[in-house]
Each structure stands twice: as C-alpha cells, then as structure tokens.
Amino acid sequence: MEDNRENGMPDLLDLQEFDEEALKRESEEVLQMRLMTSENAVFTRTEGGFLSLKFGEKTYDRVGVYLTFPLTNPEEFISIREADEKAKEIGMIRSLKDMPKDVQDMIQEQVRLRYFMPVIRKVMEVKDEYGYAYWYVQTDFGSCRFTTHMGGDAVVSLGEARYQITDIDGNRYELPDLYALTVMERKKLDLFI
Amino acid sequence: MKLLYTLKESQRQALSLHDGETIWYCVPVDLDFDNGMHNARTSYTDQTWIVVTEERLVTLRGDEKTSEHLLADCEKIKCEHQVGCGIVTVFPKEGLPECVARFSMRHIIRVAYAVRGAQTLVQAIQEEQNPKMVSRVESREYEKYCEKCGRALPGTSKCMYCDGKSEILKKFMALCGDFVGRLIAISLLLVLLAAINMFNPMVQRYFIDNALANGQGTVKDLWLFIGLTFVLTVGGMICWIYRYWLCVKLGASLSMSLRAKLYYKIQVLSLSFINNRKPGELMNRVSRDTKQIRIFMEEVFGDMFSTVVTMAVSLVMMLIISWKMTLLSLAFVVAVLVIIRMFWHHIHTIFHKQWLRADDLSSNLQDILSGMRIVKSFGKEERESARFTEKTEAFAAIQKKNETFWAVFFPIMTFLLGVGTYIAIYFGGVQVLEGSMTVGELVQFVTYSGYLFGPLSWMTHLPRAVMQMLTSLNRIYDVLDEEPMLADKAESKAFPIQGAFTFEDVSFGYQTYEPVLEHISFDVKPGEMIGLVGASGTGKSTLINLIMRLYDVDQGRITLDGYDLRDVQMESLHSQIGVVLQETFLFSGTILANIRFAKQDATLEEVIMAARAANAHDFICKTPDGYNTYVGEHGYNLSGGERQRIAIARAILNNPRILILDEATSALDTESEFLIQQALNRLVKGRTTFAIAHRLSTLRDADRLVVIDKHGVAEIGTHNELLEKQGIYYGLVNAQLRMSSGEK
Predict the structure, then answer these.
(1) What's residue B293's pLDDT?
(2) Are the beta carbons of B553 and B708 closer than 8 angstroms?
(3) Exposed (0-12), middle (13-18) or buried (19+): which is A173, by Cβ within 10 Å?
(4) The domain that contains B60 carries what CATH number?
(5) The pTM is what?
(6) Where are the alpha helices (DSSP H) in B208-301?
(7) Are B712 and B517 in contact (CB under 8 A)?
C-alpha cells in the first residue's frame, strides 16, 4: 500500500478533468470488461467513412476499432474506443463471430481502414546492394517494391514459418508461410531467414 | 522533403483552378480509398494526390476529383496515424468527420507536413487573415529515396550514385590537400616499389641466361646475383614497411581531422538537428564512419595503386616476352573470375547469415543478463538456458558449415589460379626446348604472371571497399555541410540582461507537424519568479528550452529586454542563464571542476561561497578529498540530493540574471529537499526565475503561476488569484492537500 501511494502521487494526466473521484471511478471501470452485444450496442456507418455507436445510454459520433491481438487473434477481443487523442475504451467485442453479419462487416471495414499489412504472395526479386535490400514482391495489394536494411531486424519471425518484414519507411509486410513459396523464391530470401 | 509535386496537365485541368488560385501543397498517396463508402479497397494505387490550394483541399485519382472541401468550411484537418498506414480526416464545421485519403508509411511524413500546411491556412481563414500571406510550411527532413534512381539514401541529402560521387571525391581531395607532403611521399614510394618489383625478374633472367644456362658463369657471378637480389628484396621490404607506416599515419590524421571537425560541427548545430537524427546515429558518424575512412586509407588506398601499377606493367612485360602465352593464360584467368563471381553470392550469403545469427545470439544474451533478476525471481533459469543453448547450437552449426566451406573453397581457388601458370610453363617449356625462347625469359614470364594473377581475388573486394568509403564520407560531409540554424548574426547583440521576457503568440513543435506549444502569450517582469504548472507532456520543459534558445520558435516571437531572442548573441545569453535540471548531470572530474564548469576562472573563494549558498559546503567538506573529490563514473558516489546541490552551486557561481529550475527538488528525501529549497530561495532573489514543479509547495514563493494545458496557457496569476478562480490550479492544490493529509 505504501508503494502505491508514492507512485500514485502527482500523476495528473488530464488537468481539465482532474477530480479524485472521477479518477477513482475510472480506475475501477478499467477492471470491468464491458462486453458489447447486438442488444446493447448499435453501430451505424457515417457519411465520412467511420462508425458511430450507441452503447447503452451514450452515443458516440465516431469510434475507433482496435484489435488487441492483431497478429494472432484478429477476430477476438476487439476494443472499441473513443475517437479523440485519449482513446478511452467504450467496450469490447469478445468475438466478432457472435455479432450479426452487418456488424461484422462494419467492424471489418474499419479494421481494413486502420490496419495495413500487405501479405506477400510471391517474391519476384531481392537484390542487396551496399547495406540495403531492394525487394520486388506480389502482395494482396498488388505488386510492390520496397527497401529494407540488411541488418538483423528487417525480417523477424512470428513463429513457425511466419515472418514479418519491415521496410525503411516503417511499412510492415507479412509472409504467412515460408514453405508456400517455391524453392527459387525461398532461395532469394536466403540472406534473411 | 518535397511538398509540392508537379501534376500532369490533364490533372491540373481536373482541378479547375480559378484565376489567382494557386497550388500550395501537392503530395502523392498510394492506397486506394473509396471515399466515405466504407470500403477501403485492398490495392495500391498510382497517380493519386492530395492537393491543397489557398481555398480548397482536393484529392485526385487520375484525372478525377474524388473529394473536395472548401477550407472555409473546415473546422480542422488532421493527419491521423493508424497501424502501418495513415489517413487524412477533415472535420467540417457542420457534420461528422470525414476520411478523405489513405496512404502507407512511405508517404506519412510528407502528408503530415502538407496537412499541417493546410491547417495553418484553415486557421488563417478562421482568424480572417488573408491566406495568401501565411508562410508556407517547409520540411527540412531529407528524402528517403533518390528521385532519379530510386535507391535508398543512407541518411544523406544526395544520392551517391547519381550526383554525389564526384562532389564527394572533390571534397575528399581538398581534405587530402592538407596532407599533400605525405601523399607525395607515398606516391614516390609506390613508384619505387613497383620498379623494384619489376626489376627483380629482369635480374633473374639475366643471371639464368648469362651465367647458369650457358655454363659460363663463375662463383663471382653467383655472389653478384645473390647480393643484388638481397639488396632488392631488403630494399623492397623497407619501402613497403615505410609506405605502410605512412598510409597508417595518413589514415589516422585524416580520420582524426574529420572527427574533430564533426565533433565541433555537432556542438555548433542546433538541438533540433540532433533530435531529427536517430539516437546513436550521430555517434556512429563520429566514430564508425571516420574509422571506416582510416581503415580504407590503411588497408586499401596504398595497395590499390601499387597493385594496379604492378599488374599493368607485368602485363606489358608479359606481352613483350610472348603475346601468345599471355593471351592463353589470360583466357584462363577469365574462367577463374567467372567461377569466383558465381560463388560470390553464395559466400556473401553464408557469411551474412552467420553474422545475423551472431547478432541474434548476442542480443539474446544481453536480454537475459539484464533481465537476470526477473528470470531468477520467476524461477525460469532452465527454460532460458535451454533457449540460449538452442541458439548457440544453431550458430555453431552455421559457423562450422561456413568454415568448412571456406577451408575447401579457398585452396581450390588458389590452385585454379595457379593452373594458368602450369599452362604457361608447358607452352613456354615447349618453346624453350625448340630454342625460340630462353630459360631466363620463361622464368621472367612466370614471375610476372604471378604478379598479375596473385592480387586478382583481392581486386574483387575493391569496389565494395571504395563504395563503403564513399558512403562514410558522404555521411560525414552531410553533417559538415549543414548550416547551423541558430547561428549568431552579425548584428546580434551582447548586453547585460535585465530579465524582462515577453511571449508574443509563440508556437513551436519539435516536429513541425506536431505542435507542442500553441499561441503562448504573456509578460514576465525582471526579477519575477514564474512557476510553471501542468501535467507531464504538456510542454513545460519545451517552454524552458525556448527560453534558453535551444530551439527557435516556429511562429510568433520571444523578446528579452525588448530585443527579439533571435537577435541576442548566444554566448552572451547562455552565460547569463543558470540551469538546475531534474536529472543532474555531473561530468567526470572533481567537484571543483564541476562547480567551475560555467566560469572556468572562478577563484576558490567564489567556489566555496557558491557551495555554501547551495548548502553543499558541509557535505563536500566531509568527503575524503574535499573539493578535489573525483565524481563521475568511477568516482565517489554522491546521493541524488548531493548531486543536486552541486548543480545548484554550479548555477549560482555564474551569478546569472535568469534562473531555470526544472523539477529541481523532485525525487529527494525531505531533508535534502528542505536544504535545497532553502538554497533555491536564496538563489532566486532578484533574478528572473522560471521553475517547473509537480509538488506545488515548491512554488509557494512564486510571484505568478502559469498553468499550461492542452498546448497553451490555461491560467495565469498569483497563488491567491488562481485559488479564487477555482479552476485547474485550485483542483490541483486541493488534490495534493488531500493526498498529503491522507499520507499522515
């Protein structure tokens, strides 16, 4: 208890709303998993390309859709958050499968807007030249050229034969299964894997 | 970074600009986005642009407008960072936010700048200014790719392949100009070495033909030959050693001079230049890139010329002796080169792999060692050591494989190169037997062919070495050519500061597109103590950085005693500011040297007085060596409070007119805090003081308090005024009172 008090001392993240009671309430609220169901949450598409939400009593003009396990469980534990900088959590969708089809579609649309990680289907060419590797690949977004460093963290393993490649701009590409590639393609990746 | 791309004529047409409307920003985006139709398509797109004029924000796809917004109808325009991509969102004055463009990380910086530019236009329109008078947002960040060839730029402004190479070489020559004497000596030695090398086979031939082969030689001839060969060999050796020594010396002085220049330049350059670089990158430029140049001068530069000269002369001599035999052996060399080339990629790959594994291994090891306490406390030693063993085994396997390959490959290569000589000997031998060639000529030929083929495998490394050196040079000159942004001007003034500050509509952000402070305006009287209050990350420390002029404001201005801060001579300003920061940095050295840092010629009496005023004198006296006690990495261990008091003494010594206290008393025990508080109270008298503190009790003596929230000044006034106002400050004071009473 002693420690807690010391750490919690002047942590005044938002002055405007600073209110001890509110803070206490907030930290209590975080403990709850407010699950969203088709009964308590109503999602609507907005004209601007986002989603609005009516959850219980409250309505939100625009909400953010955050995947909590984007790489391993993209359809479970989806966090729905407010759209401002603080992005406070409104609630969670336990499993997208349990939602009605139209809600699933709406959520998936937002996920496609927010997340971008092309999947590499075919490796056409990898050329290394003085510290950089120049890639030419086919992705599910179309053909693409990108550049990575030759260092150790350009290609990281996500387990088994699954790899993630990060280019010098910070774009990430997924290679779902190394062994789905042909032998010739795998040979081109020899330098990294 | 380019923010204004040129559109095709048909696309300009599609914009239908009216008279007087001009394009301010035009940047490409690369993800297809079905505007507002909830269908972010999964495909890349080409020829899609965000265009900003002083009236509109338009997105173009091909020759077609996909969205259009009047800036006058916009509340704000934002570039929002998503996961692995970004979107541009328009917040209209009426209605819901609208997403207008989507792009991958390749374009995010560029788009962010352009959107920031659009936002300044929106603001100007809202404030009823003429948008044409707004200054354009510019980006000083470098492009990541060469526009001409598409290669990645290694943190430089110019591409080495396209236009940097000759320029860099010119600069390098100019730099070498400082060492012209040594260069001439090296070239003379190189010529001498090549001559000795060439001469040796001639002596052999003369001796064989005139003394051995015809049986007319005497013992005297033998002695003469041995003597001459001995002199040539020893002479060559001495030349070689001397040349190597000269090259090493040249490389060392070159890299030293570059290092010194770099170090000086980095000190001069503004913090914003340094902050724009990744941490460690500048350090790499100082240490690694200069080392690269030293290695090149030592190991490549000298050998490069002497080898090329030797090879050329050997070839000529061989052709003179027998052009047929020369061509025969050359054909063979070509074959060997092709083989090397074929294996080159493989060799490169296997060693790169080994290097990757080694990297992985060492980072893994570091991970475990630094997390040792966690590993032990969770009892996971065995799992971790199993994981590590697995990695070492993988590394060992690769290493073994590589070494085996190398051990087989290298001798075979050497052998193959030697085969050329066998062929030469065969055909030469036939000619000797026929009598069309002398034995001496054959020996001479074989020796020269050794000179020609020997360095071939070494030559294949040459392009890489040269390229590496050029890259390093490029990176170094990139820093050296940078103009310091915060340079003093000729008309900069130096004057004794009174300490009156005015902030006039100041805005600033470390990244131009991410403002930290916006529209800050307030006055400070000389000698006033200002307390800065606000949550972490609101920009208090940034405000202080601006006062110290570590950065220049983006918009508005700060004046000091009526002069724009940008017109005050930097040294004059900094010599009159005293700073005590939360993280006290003491240099390795004695306490005396640390206190004297700001004023090197302070007398011992002044130092003691400063230490007394800082409540530091007593504890300093108790240390074993008093003021001569060595502090720093391997020195005497001072507590946080003690270090802080030394820092205060350092700030007092200079008798500064302006004092800056950034969290000077946080994280201290009560007694130290009291002592330091006392010292600070003495210190602030009569000086303009800016103090940041989380604990509001620290600021009870402040004349006025400035509450910073949401990038701007939220409240300003005395303690009592702010309490009466019952605003943010009131809430803070109450909260802290409640917490501290709870503590008791």
Answers:
(1) 82
(2) no
(3) buried
(4) 2.30.29.30
(5) 0.68
(6) 219-268, 271-275, 281-284, 290-295
(7) yes
> What is the interface pTM, i.e. ipTM, of the complex?
0.84
**pLDDT for residue B511:** 65
Write out chain B residues lying below 8 Å of A53, CB-based: none
State residue A21's pLDDT score. 72
Domain that holds residue A110: 18-114
Q: Which among A98, A114, A130 is the end of a domain? A: A114
The verdict on A38 and A75 lying in the same domain is yes
- 3-state secondary structure at position B528: coil
Residue recorded with tokens 């000389």: B526
Q: Which amino acid is at B437?
A: M
Residue-number span of the structural domain to which B310 is assigned: 156-322+437-486
3-class SS of residue A152: coil
Query: How many structural domains is chain A composed of?
Result: 2
Average pLDDT over residues B171-192: 80
Pairwise CB contact (< 8 Å): B728 & A18: yes
Task: Give the CA count within 13 Å in the CB-facing half-sphere of B655.
Answer: 7
- A-B CB pairs within 8 A amount to 149
For residue B637, the 8-state DSSP code is P
Query: Distance (Å, rounded) from C-alpha B182 to C-alpha A154?
Result: 43
In angstroms, the CA A178 to CA B520 distance is 55
Q: What residues of chain A lie within 8 A of the CB of B467, using their CB?
A: 130
Domain finish residue from A48, A83, A114: A114
**Which helix (H) or strand (E) covers residue B589, if one does?**
strand B589-590
The arithmetic mean of pLDDT across residues B580-588, rounded, is: 77
What is the side-by-side strand order in the sheet with A58-67?
A41-45, A51-55, A58-67, A76-82, A89-95
- Please write the tens of the pLDDT for every residue from B20-78: 888 999 999 888 766 545 555 556 777 889 999 988 999 988 888 888 899 999 999 98
* Same-domain check for residues A66 and A98: yes
Q: Which of A48, A106, A114 sits opposite B82 (nearest CB)?
A: A114
Domain-located, residue A94: yes
SS3 B207: helix
**Alpha-carbon distance A88 to nearest alpha carbon in chain B (angstroms):** 16
Same domain flag for B226 and B315: yes
User: At residue B276, does pLDDT exceed 70?
Assistant: no
Cα radius of gyration rounded to whole Å, chain B: 36
Smallest Cα distance from B494 to chain A, Å: 40
